[in-house]
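[step 3/7] inverse_fold.run input=structure_tokens len=214
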């Protein structure tokens, strides 16, 4: 990462979310971004190829999830792809057992490389469809939190509900175009209530919304 990016990320996390990113967390995040930059040249995991923009837009966005993470896992990131927010959660909360779930083997190969290079000993990446994971006794019905960043809200809830533990949280990263009333109505179909909605602006300028159901 550019020398200015760690300080920007620390400042954004502290001022917006009250998160203290220590040197160890920053080291893991830097290993992640470096690996992503290399892999992006080959298989294009994100539309962004500039590591500074990756930090300002994608890594910073993922920090929002840390404000609602449970004290204990397991936590599952659905459709992890390039690792947002799952890898960032794992880098900053190494005490959590984190599962990165994606149906694409290339994405999972990348995630496993990040797990190795960043030293994320309590994180695993699995190539599996969400519907199949829900039927896996080690995964389905056990997650204290299920997150997603790149899945439409109604699809996310349909896939995530069978994965969550009875008191688990569902955490969806959206734009402000997804309204609170819409989120409440969609959740009601699954017996869920909106626990909180968090609005924020990224260092890159975009407005974002985090929606949490319980």
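[step 3/7] decode complete -> sequence:
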């Amino acid at each position: 990462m550019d020398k200015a990016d760690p300080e920007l990320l620390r400042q954004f996390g502290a001022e917006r979310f009250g998160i203290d990113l220590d040197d160890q967390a920053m080291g893991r995040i830097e290993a992640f971004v470096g690996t992503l930059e290399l892999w992006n040249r080959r298989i294009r995991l994100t539309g962004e190829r500039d590591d500074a923009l990756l930090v300002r837009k994608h890594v910073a966005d993922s920090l929002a999830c840390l404000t609602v993470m449970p004290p204990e896992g397991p936590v599952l990131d659905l459709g992890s792809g390039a690792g947002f927010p799952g890898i960032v959660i794992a880098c900053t909360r190494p005490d959590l057992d984190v599962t990165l779930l994606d149906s694409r083997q290339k994405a999972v190969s990348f995630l496993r490389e990040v797990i190795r290079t960043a030293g994320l000993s309590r994180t695993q990446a699995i190539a599996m469809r969400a519907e199949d994971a829900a039927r896996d006794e080690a995964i389905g019905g056990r997650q204290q939190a299920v997150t997603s960043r790149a899945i439409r809200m109604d699809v996310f809830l349909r896939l995530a509900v069978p994965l969550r533990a009875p008191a688990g949280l569902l955490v969806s990263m959206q734009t402000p175009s997804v309204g609170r009333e819409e989120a409440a109505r969609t959740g009601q179909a699954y017996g869920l209530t909106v626990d909180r909605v968090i609005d924020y602006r990224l260092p890159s300028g975009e407005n974002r919304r985090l929606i949490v159901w319980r």
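[step 4/7] annotate
Residues 174 and 209 are 5 Å apart (CA to CA).
The longest strand covers residues 164-174.
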